[in-house]
């Protein structure tokens, strides 16, 4: 019951946060110089055309009128209409979100599995050559430019070894029939296991590229957290009692070391959702990062606003989930 | 187990899983190749057996909409060009006028009446017959539009409905297959205008039954390919139009457009066989493509100009001598060699040579720093001066790398004592500020719309377009008179003569440092045949086939 109350309270607290977010996003976007009407019509436009378009887009209203209009529409679930494509954002954003969800999920799974285990083993065998190698690799991983990494992976794994396709989500010569737009799911629903494999292969390289930085951060965090826990008394007791080392590490130590790791995982997952622009660009994936990016370059206010708002919302939600997970993992944490 | 043994166990586990992962992926790809589902294996497999009949075209961005009259971006026209047709068409690789949906046409003596004899036996993809009424319906729709909806109509025909500037008086169906278009005043580039992709004929049934938004996503034309589906930023699929009036075409059964924003990634996709044709190739990759037996390189004939604009309302560029000095000070050949990889022609006029009326007699300013210094001396600026040099932040077809070109110009200018500071803004801001005349000197360029001289000289350098596209605020009454006269001169030779004169005057006034006419590069797989890149940037794909 306490838990439920806590969740409800947290959800209510989200309202001012989100409201503040809409305001900040709204202001920042309008602070970018450049007239959307001019951007839409392009270099060739005459002044009359620009003026007419500004009027029809409501851009000649004062900013606060525009803001409250936007807010009012938002309350009714209307995210506005893309200025560039003249399609409601509600309608067009889901396929982009789905692409990003699929990619981020895949990436975070890789990052967690590899990162956490590498961190644990490094802590377990502290100062061994494994530890040194893993931590040097983690340092390289954190500082790796994704752009370069992506192109190198394409060169090696696609062109040289022909393991994975270079770009896209699917084989366009045999396109996936979209139902949910989560292609892994769609192919399974339709029983197209051959396509499932193809979609999975399209995810591997962008997934790894995207996972590199979070993987490295998670590994380093796990290692330091584990090292701290493994020095504590109860671990020494467990070992003194003759418990197998594997269980000491993976059961007794991990459970107490995982809280800070979980925080990092939550943050990184949130970042992945919005921060996959580079990966999406190099691998030609139509994700939400690219959606927002294209919105920015054409001053497509509704797209930028809604895109950022949705990503921010997901970010906040993930943080909430992480907070709830704390209490499940560590019963000492209570919410009042 | 002791500590060492555990470590050994983990390392073994890692090695084994890596090996398994690698193997399984490897097996996977050959399995898929067999069932024809793998992106990589597919193309190779198809070429082994029957001839490939699907063309995958990779490009940098997605289309905005597929209703040609509503859009202005090249990525939209690339697609609509293959779904729709226009009354008259450009040549295969030039902007000469050829029959399209109209087989023949006549122009009256006074240049006011155009009579088009339409091609018979043409049907729209929805089964409607193409006839004179269909043409009238399209022109009616356009003429009743507004500028923010039908931008190109206003831009090419001067306005809508009863507006003063609107050049089209009436469009009438004389009979089933004859259309008469009457103009209010002669418009020399009229045929070139109606050959442009925005003025493609859409099925009248679609126009009356669909809303504007639906039309944008459900194009119905008469062209060689029929629209199938569009998933934004992922793919646009077109199928062969079995009822196409020219039964020889199209050669392939299906065309798929994919957008891959990154140039290098797109080239990688081409090399792996996931796409068959790639737009937007970096000049620096050209040599590699030429050396690859599986690929071929295409050069798009140039219809652009990249230039350094000198704002003639700002000191010291209000003095023609200083502008001439700038022209002498900059080594264009070196810029073309270094940053266009030689894939461009050094420019001396404000328009490319492919355009009728190009004046080849004009002698470009040669690179001569001494002469530049002498001219500066004459202008009373022997000690040089400080200026801002604006460089565009994004690669453009007419200038692959604005920043580097600016750096080269900066060092050229330093040699003659001019101290240039490189300035840049985000692209939309850059355009807006330059348009306001806030730049001393700015890099910019232009890609032609209809392949007519008017579309370069009048649009970019006439005093009428100050505050619009004449970013340099260049004003010359003589040039203006020539350009206006040329607009209504229907005799081709006389008209070209007027443009040649204008180019000489512009050359002497030197409002620009014309830099280069670039030839944008494309690449395709080696078994691709019959592809001809068009200078307008929208290519016909119906002639393409595979060996």
TrEMBL record, chain B:
Keyword check for Transferase: no
SUPFAM superfamilies tied to this protein: Periplasmic binding protein-like II
GO annotation, biological process: peptide transport
Signal peptide limits: 1-22
Domain Solute-binding protein family residue range list: 96-466
Family affiliation: Belongs to the bacterial solute-binding protein 5 family.
Protein name per its UniProtKB record: ABC transporter substrate-binding protein
Protein's organism: Jeotgalibacillus salarius
């Amino acid at each position: 019951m306490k838990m439920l109350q806590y969740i409800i309270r947290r959800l209510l607290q989200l309202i001012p946060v989100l409201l503040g977010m809409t305001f900040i996003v709204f202001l920042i976007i309008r602070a970018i110089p450049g007239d959307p009407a001019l951007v839409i019509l392009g270099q060739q436009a005459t002044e009359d055309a620009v003026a007419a378009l500004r009027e029809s887009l409501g851009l000649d209203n004062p900013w606060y009128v525009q803001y409250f209009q936007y807010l009012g529409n938002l309350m009714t679930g209307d995210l506005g209409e893309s200025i560039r494509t003249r399609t409601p954002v509600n309608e067009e954003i889901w396929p982009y979100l789905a692409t990003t969800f699929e990619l981020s999920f895949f990436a975070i799974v890789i990052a967690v599995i590899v990162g956490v285990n590498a961190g644990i083993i490094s802590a377990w065998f502290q100062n061994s050559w494994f530890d040194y190698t893993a931590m040097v690799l983690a340092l390289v991983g954190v500082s790796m430019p994704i752009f370069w990494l992506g192109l190198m992976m394409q060169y090696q794994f696609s062109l040289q070894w022909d393991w994975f396709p270079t770009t896209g989500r699917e084989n366009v010569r045999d396109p996936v029939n979209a139902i949910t737009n989560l292609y892994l799911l769609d192919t399974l629903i339709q029983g197209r296991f051959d396509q499932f494999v193809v979609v999975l292969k399209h995810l591997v390289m962008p997934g790894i590229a995207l996972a590199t930085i979070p993987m490295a951060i998670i590994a380093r965090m796990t290692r330091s957290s584990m090292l701290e826990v493994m020095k504590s008394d109860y671990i020494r007791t467990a070992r003194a009692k003759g418990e197998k080392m594997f269980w000491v590490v993976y059961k007794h130590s991990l459970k107490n070391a995982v809280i800070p790791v979980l925080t990092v995982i939550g943050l990184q997952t949130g970042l992945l959702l919005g921060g996959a622009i580079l990966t999406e660009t190099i691998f030609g994936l139509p994700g939400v990062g690219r959606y927002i990016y294209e919105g920015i370059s054409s001053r497509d206010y509704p797209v930028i606003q809604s895109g950022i708002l949705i990503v921010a919302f997901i970010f906040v939600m993930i943080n909430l989930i992480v907070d709830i997970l704390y209490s499940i993992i560590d019963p000492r944490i209570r919410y009042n | 187990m002791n500590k060492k043994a555990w470590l050994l166990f983990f390392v073994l586990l890692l090695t084994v899983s890596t090996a398994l992962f690698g193997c399984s992926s490897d097996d996977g790809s050959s399995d898929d190749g067999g069932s024809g589902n793998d992106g990589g294996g597919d193309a190779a497999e198809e070429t082994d057996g029957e001839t490939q009949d699907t063309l995958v075209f990779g490009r940098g961005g997605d289309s905005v909409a597929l209703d040609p009259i509503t859009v202005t971006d090249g990525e939209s026209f690339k697609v609509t060009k293959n779904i729709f047709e226009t009354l008259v068409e450009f040549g295969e690789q030039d902007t000469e006028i050829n029959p399209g949906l109209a087989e023949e046409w006549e122009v009256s003596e006074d240049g006011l009446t155009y009579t088009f004899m339409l091609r018979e036996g043409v049907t729209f993809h929805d089964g409607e017959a193409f006839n004179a009424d269909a043409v009238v319906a399209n022109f009616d729709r356009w003429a009743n539009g507004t500028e923010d909806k039908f931008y190109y109509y206003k831009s090419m025909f001067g306005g809508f409905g009863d507006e003063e500037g609107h050049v089209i008086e009436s469009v009438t169906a004389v009979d089933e297959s004859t259309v008469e278009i009457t103009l209010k005043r002669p418009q020399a580039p009229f045929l070139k205008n109606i050959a442009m992709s925005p003025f493609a004929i859409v099925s009248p049934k679609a126009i009356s039954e669909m809303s504007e938004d639906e039309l944008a996503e459900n194009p119905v034309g008469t062209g060689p390919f029929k629209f199938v589906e569009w998933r934004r930023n992922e793919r646009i699929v077109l199928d062969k139009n079995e009822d196409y009036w020219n039964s020889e075409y199209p050669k392939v059964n299906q065309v798929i457009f994919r957008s891959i924003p990154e140039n290098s990634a797109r080239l990688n996709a081409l090399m792996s066989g996931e796409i068959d044709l790639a737009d937007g190739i970096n000049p620096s990759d050209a040599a590699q493509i030429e050396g690859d037996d599986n690929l071929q390189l295409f050069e798009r004939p140039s219809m652009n100009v990249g230039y350094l604009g000198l704002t003639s309302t700002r000191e010291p560029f209000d003095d023609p001598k200083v502008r001439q000095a700038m022209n002498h000070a900059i080594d264009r050949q070196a810029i073309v060699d270094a940053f266009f990889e030689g894939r461009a022609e050094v420019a001396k006029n404000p328009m490319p040579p492919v355009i009728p009326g190009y004046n080849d007699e004009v002698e470009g300013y040669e690179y001569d720093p001494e002469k530049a210094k002498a001219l500066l001396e004459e202008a009373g600026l022997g000690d040089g001066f400080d200026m801002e040099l604006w460089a565009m932040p994004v690669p453009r077809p007419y200038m692959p790398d604005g920043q580097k070109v600016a750096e080269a110009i900066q060092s050229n200018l330093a040699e003659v004592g001019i101290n240039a500071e490189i300035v840049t803004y985000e692209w939309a801001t850059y355009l807006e500020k330059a348009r306001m005349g806030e730049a001393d000197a700015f890099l910019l360029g232009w890609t032609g719309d209809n392949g007519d001289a008017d579309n370069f000289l009048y649009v970019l350098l006439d005093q009428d377009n100050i505050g619009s596209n004449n970013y340099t605020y260049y004003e010359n009454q003589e040039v203006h008179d020539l350009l206006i006269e040329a607009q209504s001169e229907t005799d081709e030779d006389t008209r070209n003569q007027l443009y040649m004169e204008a180019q000489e005057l512009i050359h002497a006034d030197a409002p620009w440092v014309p830099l280069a006419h670039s030839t944008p590069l494309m690449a395709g797989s080696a078994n691709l045949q019959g592809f001809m890149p068009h200078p307008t940037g929208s290519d016909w794909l119906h002639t393409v086939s595979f060996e």
